[in-house]
Each structure stands twice: as C-alpha cells, then as structure tokens.
Predict the 3D structure of the following.
Amino acid sequence: MNNLGVRETEVVVIGAGQAGLSAAYHLRRAGYEPDRDFVVLDHAPRPGGAWQFRWPSLTYGKVHGMHALPGMELTGADGSRPSSAVIGDYFADYERAFDLRVHRPVDVRAVRPGQGGRLSVESSEGLWSARALINATGTWDRPFWPRYPGQETFRGRQLHTAHYPGPQEFAGQRVVVVGGGTSAVQHLLEISEVAATTTWVTRRPPVFREGPFDQEWGRAAVARVEERVRRGLPPQSVVSVTGLPMTEAMERARAAGVLVPRPMFDHVTPTGVAWADGSAVDADVILWATGFRAVVDHLAPLKLRESGGGIRMEGTRAARDPRVHLVGYGPSASTIGANRAGRAAVREIRALLGSSQPRVPAAV
C-alpha cells in the first residue's frame, strides 16, 4: 500500500468463476504471488461463480459441457446433487489447493486510467492500482429483459431465468416460457410436468442438432462468435450458433407437444399474451429465458466500446487498451473456452509486463 492508501499490485483479476480461477491458476504457475503480484476480487458471497445461483433442480447430471479447471479434475461427483453444490464445492477446493486467496465479497465499481500508466480499480474493499487487468465477470448479473407493449399491465407473475426457483412453484399454473436457448428448454421440460399448461415462444425458430458436437463443429461455432468481437459487436453466446443438442428427454417432450414453439407474441395483455393475428394465450406466469449480457459497465471509464456497441477484441486483449484482457467473454464464454482464455491472457500479460515479471515460477 502506498502513502495514499492505494494497494499496488501487478495484476487485478475481477471475478472468480471458471475464467477468473483459470487466469489465477496460470498467474500462479508463472510465478506471480497472490496478494503480492496479483489479487482476485469476487463479488459473490462464496466460491462457485454463477453456478452457486442456479436453481436446485438443475442437478449435476443435467449439466451440459462442464469442463474441469486446469490442474485439478472434478471426480466422483454425485449426479443427483444440485450443480450449485457440486461445482461450488469443487471451486472452493480448487481455491484452497492452489492458494488463490480470493477476496470476497468485493464489488468492483469502476476501472479508470491511473497514474504512471497504471489502472485504478475502485472497489468496496478500497482502491487498487495495477499494471494489467483480467476481467472475468461473466454475464449472470445482467439478465436481459426484452420489452414488449403491455408488459407492465400483466396481472400475473413475470420472472427471469436468473431468478428461476425450480418447477415446484408453477404447479397448476399456466406458464409462458420465452426464449430459444438451453435454459428455456430445461425450464419447459421441468415445468410441463407440474403446470396446468405451458406455451413456448421464441423470437427465432430453434435449431435442434442431433449427434455429437465434435471438435470441428465446436471450432467453427467459436470462430463465428469470435468474428463478432473482432468487429467490435456485442458477443453472441456459443449456444446461439451451435443449436440445441437433442436429447431423449427433448425428443419425448417434442412428441408430447411440449417442445413445439410458437412465434414471438405481438404484445402482453393483463391476462396473458397475444399475437397480431388475434390469437391469444391466457397465462399466470411469463418466464423470460432470454439470456444475459456481458457485465462490463465498470470498464466504461476506459472507453473500450466500439460504435457497434461491443468491445473489439484481439484474442483476449481489448483492442483499445492492451492492459485489459477479457476472459469468459464472447468466444471464451464456455467452460473450456474460459480455461484457454485464462492461459492466453496470462501469456500476453507476462509479455506486456516484461522484465518486472516474477523470475521463479510458483509451485502449483
């Protein structure tokens, strides 16, 4: 800490989900010491990243594509336990095993240009001064709510995936599920077993994909997302370009008429939703499974955004400021992508910091 009460470090990592922990692990491997050369600031109350907030009925056995963190496999997990508990325990064990010393709960309010070419990180814990930043804040804290005419008149309940409590609260109710992604399908399959009726509404016709997602398909999907962030456009999710993986449960739901989408409604009424052709559906609940947006507003003082609304990326580096790396953003928003991005960001930061980087790699 300097004489102005500002704590100085080489690298600040914001977020301790998959991407942030991966970055912290690779910093340790490169010889950076936690709480001296780097610090990890996480706003969540406990380990687990966004997983700790997932609904209880999303058991670990239902999780699609969870990839282990670098250096430590997740083994022997009980598929019947909630994913929030399984992955929360795994992340906690990982933080202890590699002595990552995550600071929580800490809210980062803004990152600004600092003195001497450094970055000033304003947080609920105080001010940090760093030479480089790894932003790994994900999307969970910024649910996207579309706006439709009449939405404020609806007399029933409206909620977002971010606050989905599980199917039990919808027993006997008429539920409209809005969204064409994995979460919407998961909600539908669960709710349809207890609800009076379910209606699935999507802005675009969902694309189902059968068969395995092999490496070639995965690379092509990631490349399409990556192209958007290279152009400075807001990122799309990887799922939006891969399609929905068809499972046996989904096949059964489609055959039963549950997984049959209707086009997006025109407006919301006090008692449900209605289309321009005059058709309507009564509802007690509208569940908006409409996704999330990247949590990057705290980076606004750095002026990283392009005219297209996104942050133009060169690999993990923000094109407008080579000190700033975004991991878990755009093409690295998957669990395996987050691992790779954490490693790539640390490699570039070591090159940026040059001769000041630690000489002796840490034992991890």
The chain has seven helices and 20 strands. The two ends are 27 Å apart (CA to CA).
